[in-house]
Write a structure and sequence with these properties.
heterodimer, A: mainly alpha, three-stranded mixed β-sheet, 24 helices, B: mainly alpha, 2 domains, 23 helices, 3 strands
Chain lengths: 498, 516
């Protein structure tokens, strides 16, 4: 498979992806030098808003219905090793760029007044994280990809360590970094093996994604590379049984990093980007294993969430369950399953941001995420209750919300590939409805006897929640444009793997 | 012939606009109820304005937008859709009038929320009635569950919340576990979500075993039709105010389940496939069991609303039974019963509400002589009861007639016996109420003695003392007058039961259109 490429210069006239990647990183560094805290924060917020606008422009100017790489930029970097600065987006990655920018704006607005320790550094770290994450989605050189992949750890570690809200934040930060490093070592090995293979096949090293697509990989090597890559990605995703860092990070870390870890699922994206097109035969051969792991994750995450009295832990395990569903879609290796998985990831970004934001609002008010601290929240805080309910409905995939099209397509795709697994996955959907609705009823509609009334959402928070809710119903009812954007690349990918 | 029309959308959107307006004028109850009524009348007029075109053999289509590639959020009004939508929208108008009387007389909480959710429920109902494909249907089917959940838990008491949990568990459980996989499977096999007369699954290449499994998935997915063993949510949902029960039992919810069963039998599987695989006979067994068990259970109950709930469970299975007979007369009876049962049952619920408003009583054993206190209400109750039992000149007679002759036509003697048995049983449990109301002795002294004996057998708790005080109140010194807005809709519905019994022709013409 060789993909055509449209350069940024010819498509939009300036290197938009590089701006999207480096503008927030550079601004973050500058903002830390600004002495006045409020000014620095305002600067960072405006950067985030500009970033979101740019990302939207990128998504809108994207030409749908083609598998071509768009907005591409190429600059030689370490030419002798075949490493270049090569960025671009296709239908698989393009939607994640505005999603990341959106999450960044949400995080900044949410914690605007609520960070006590050096707020400007907190915001700067988040903005740097935004740029780096967009880098992951845009990178088309595997070394560049890996650099961004590892760079994520720096702001993440700082955010967990310095601004964590739990007593064990130091442990959570170290646990997170250790898990990631364990995962990235085999990933790097997989990437190097691919470049070496390119050298044996063509006589020169290349880490370029498009080059690697054209070099055939021997069957045995494919399997090795597949498992190297899959291991690293499974930890990042996180796929059961490699998920244990996520609940810890979510419990101990600040809300902002939680939104990034749960909302922007780079691990699952990695599965679609790397092993599927690069080692297609192995991916096809072992797809059953990944699908089984996905279904196990759906059930495991759902069942743990069902008995979880802590809201943040519940959301962590719900996320584990959702990752399983997305992977089931990815490894159904069908257009519907893959498109569904991408849409599902997009929905999860919006929904997890929303639910974590409301969980954070509850935490600010009650000082707790435990069920015992809630009870009849909806009585004293009707807006908080109503938004939690509506966003939650999207999390469990109710028709009409953004959760439905993705989930439906994943099940449709999975059904075509493995009937039994799809049937079991449906069980996971029921469990999801059960854990969300029971939690909602106990926390929001239960008895509020002996509890302080919870203050309702403030204007700023209401506006954020309303924006999220509108987005949820908008995508839920009009998913067709999004599906158009992903269709070209997904079809090409499915043809290649099949 | 399909005709493009905006009318389906008007009927769908009118309640949404109404809901927005009534919430905006929540501070002024009279204006608020005016908006409700206007929305209902608009919807009703719009729905009935489509009758002529459908009688002429057209369908009215409108496509809102493409939901996913090749799948649109689309509406198509055919005779079956009109049968359901006409019933729902007409009864909505009456329900609002009744609600005004009932909710105000009892000083119910959160009335704005009640009217708004009621309106949303009617929008969802019209949406699913007019759905042109399974996906559109599913969208509104689930929406209806969540909207009505808010109504079932109206009182927010522990009991109401428990009923709400059960309600969601049954509805979401069945629709996600059975209906969603069934829809996906149907699409995977046939490549379409669209309802097509004659079915889409014939020739889709599924083995007969697969088709039977798929059929059972659909049958399990119609949780709203309360087929046993998936019925327990319906009696539990009685905790809600009476107008909500009317919405569940007559206007929308249970009919939505039956409607889906009709669509599946006629437009997904198709009659030929149903016959070929003996799926009709399988369905007959399932619903016959439900009919018999529900009738026997109703015999043992004392709470009037519980009796009505079990009666509904049996009656819903009548409708499915009729269509599953796959004989022309049986199918006519099943389809027309959707409208007839709704009108009869809403009369009975209105009466139960009127009795509660007027005397505070809910149990049949406390209703001795109540007919002398509320003669009009109990007369209306008798009309509704006789209609459900199936006696002429009530409209329910026609259902019984068509079902009984239909079962003979299809040579299902067992079904014939089941129908007779359940008629007998329903006569017993309904006429028990009528007998007590009109001929029961209501000497206060006697009532008190029996109550004393009953209470004395238990520890004299505060609760039973209150019970006793209530029973000591003589019947004719009831708590309040039955409000005129409760009485008039009740009597109007009773009159409708009789009128439809004497002039069933329009309904029969519409039903004849359903089947070709």
């Amino acid at each position: 498979m060789s993909l055509p490429e449209i350069s940024a210069a010819e498509q939009i006239g300036f290197p938009i992806l590089s701006v999207l990647i480096f503008f927030p990183i550079v601004s973050a560094v500058i903002a830390t030098l600004v002495a006045r805290d409020r000014l620095a924060r305002q600067l960072l917020l405006s950067v985030a808003v500009v970033e979101l606008v740019l990302a939207m422009i990128l998504a809108v100017s994207f030409t749908p219905g083609t598998a071509a790489i768009q907005f591409a930029e190429r600059t030689p970097w370490i030419a002798t090793a075949g490493v270049g600065y090569h960025v671009g987006v296709d239908g698989i990655s393009v939607l994640f760029v505005p999603l990341t920018a959106f999450v960044a704006v949400m995080v900044l607005l949410f914690s605007w007044n609520d960070v006590r320790l050096r707020p400007k550094s907190y915001f700067a770290a988040l903005l740097a994280l935004t740029g780096i994450t967009i880098g992951i989605f845009a990178a088309l050189d595997l070394v560049l990809f890996f650099v961004f992949w590892e760079l994520v750890l720096v702001p993440s570690y700082l955010l967990l360590r310095l601004w964590g809200i739990g007593p064990q934040r130091a442990f959570a930060a170290v646990k997170y970094v250790m898990f990631m490093l364990v995962g990235s070592a085999p990933m790097l090995a997989g990437i190097v093996l691919l470049a070496v293979n390119h050298q044996t096949q063509t006589g020169r090293y290349s880490f370029d994604f498009l080059d690697l697509l054209t070099a055939p990989v021997p069957a045995r090597l494919q399997i090795l590379v597949f498992f190297f890559l899959a291991f690293g990605l499974a930890i990042k995703a996180p796929l059961f049984p490699f998920h244990t860092w996520l609940p810890t990070a979510l419990m101990e870390g600040p809300v902002g990093i939680g939104m990034f870890l749960v909302g922007v699922k780079i691990g699952v994206y990695g599965f679609v980007r790397l092993p599927l097109p690069l080692v297609p035969d192995a991916a096809r051969e072992w797809s059953w294993l990944m699908a089984v792991l996905g279904v196990v994750a759906i059930l495991y995450g759902g069942l743990i969430a069902l008995v979880q009295p802590n809201l943040r832990r519940l959301l962590a395990f719900a996320s584990v369950s959702h990752v399983g569903l997305a992977l089931l879609g990815v490894f159904s290796i069908s257009t519907q399953g893959l498109q569904g998985a991408l849409l599902l990831l997009l929905n999860l970004g919006i929904v997890s941001t929303g639910l974590l934001f409301l969980a954070g609002a509850l935490h600010l008010r009650t000082g707790s995420s435990e069920l015992s601290a809630f009870g009849g929240v909806a009585r004293s805080a009707p807006l908080l209750g109503a938004f939690f309910f509506m966003i939650g409905l999207a999390a469990i995939g109710l028709p009409g919300t953004s959760g439905f099209p993705g989930e439906f397509l994943v099940l449709l795709g999975a059904f075509g590939a493995w009937r039994v697994l799809a049937a079991v996955a449906v069980l996971g959907v029921i469990i999801a409805a059960a854990y969300f609705l029971t939690y909602y009823q106990r926390a929001f509609l239960g008895s509020s006897a002996g509890q302080q009334p919870v203050p309702d959402l403030r204007v700023r928070e209401t506006a954020l929640a309303a924006a999220l809710t509108i987005l949820i119903f908008w995508i839920g009812l009009f998913p067709a444009p999004l599906l158009n954007v992903t269709s070209g690349s997904v079809q090409a990918l499915v043809e290649r793997v099949r | 012939m399909p005709v493009e029309s905006v009318k389906p959308l008007v009927a769908l959107i009118a309640p949404l606009v109404g809901a927005a307006l009534l919430v905006a004028s929540r501070a002024r109850p009279n204006l608020r109820e005016t908006w409700s009524l206007l929305a209902a009348v608009t919807q009703c007029v719009t729905v009935f304005s489509m009758v002529a075109a459908v009688f002429a053999g057209d369908t009215l289509d409108s496509t809102l937008f493409s939901f996913m590639p090749e799948v649109a959020l689309a509406f198509r009004v055919d005779a079956l859709a009109l049968l359901f939508a006409g019933t729902a929208s007409a009864l909505w108008v009456v329900s609002i009038l009744y609600s005004i009387g009932y909710m105000r007389a009892l000083g119910e909480q959160d009335q704005t929320r009640f009217y708004a959710l009621f309106a949303l429920a009617l929008s969802a109902t019209i949406g699913l009635a007019f759905s042109a494909n399974l996906l559109t249907f599913y969208l509104f089917y689930e929406a209806l569950t969540f909207i009505t959940f808010g109504l079932v838990t109206h009182h927010k008491t522990a009991e109401a919340l428990a009923a709400g949990r059960k309600y969601l568990a049954y509805h979401i459980g069945t629709s996600v576990a059975f209906l969603l996989p069934a829809i996906i499977w149907t699409y995977a096999a046939s490549g379409t979500f669209t309802f097509e007369r004659g079915g889409v699954l014939a020739g889709a290449g599924l083995s007969s075993t697969a088709l039977i499994v798929l059929y059972f998935l659909f049958l399990g997915g119609v949780g709203k039709a309360a087929i046993m063993p998936l019925h327990a949510w319906l009696p539990a949902a009685m905790v809600a105010p009476v107008p909500v029960s009317a919405l569940l039992h007559a206007v929308a919810v249970v009919n939505a389940g039956v409607f889906l069963a009709f669509r599946v039998i006629l437009d997904v599987f198709g009659q030929d496939l149903m016959r070929e695989l003996n799926l009709g006979a399988i369905t007959l067994v399932v619903v016959s069991v439900t009919i018999v068990l529900a009738s026997f259970h109703a015999l043992r109950l004392d709470s009037l609303k519980a009796i009505l709930a079990y009666s509904t469970i049996g009656q819903l299975s009548y409708m499915i039974l009729g269509v599953a007979l796959l004989s022309p007369r049986g199918m006519t009876g099943g389809a027309m019963h959707l409208a007839i049962h709704s009108i009869s049952k809403i009369t009975l619920f209105f009466c139960a509400g009127a009795i509660y408003v007027g005397t505070g009583r809910t149990n049949v054993s406390e209703m001795d002589g109540i007919g002398r206190r509320l003669p009009l209400v109990m007369a209306a109750f008798s009309v509704g009861a006789l209609s459900i039992v199936g006696l002429p000149p009530m409209s329910g007679f026609w259902t019984k007639w068509y079902l009984l002759t239909g079962s003979l036509q299809a040579r299902h003697i067992g079904v014939f016996v089941v129908l007779l048995l359940s008629t007998l049983l329903s006569a017993v449990y309904y006429l028990k109420v009528v007998r007590r109301a009109f001929f029961g002795s209501a000497e206060p002294g006697e009532l008190e003695r029996s109550a004393m004996a009953h209470v004395g057998s238990q520890a004299a708790s505060a609760n039973s003392e209150r019970e006793l005080a209530r029973l000591r109140t003589p019947m004719d010194a009831g708590t309040r007058e039955v409000p005129i807005l409760v009485l008039i809709p009740t009597l109007a519905m009773a009159a409708a039961v009789i009128v439809l019994g004497i002039f069933p022709r329009p309904l029969l013409v519409l039903v004849a259109r359903v089947f070709g």
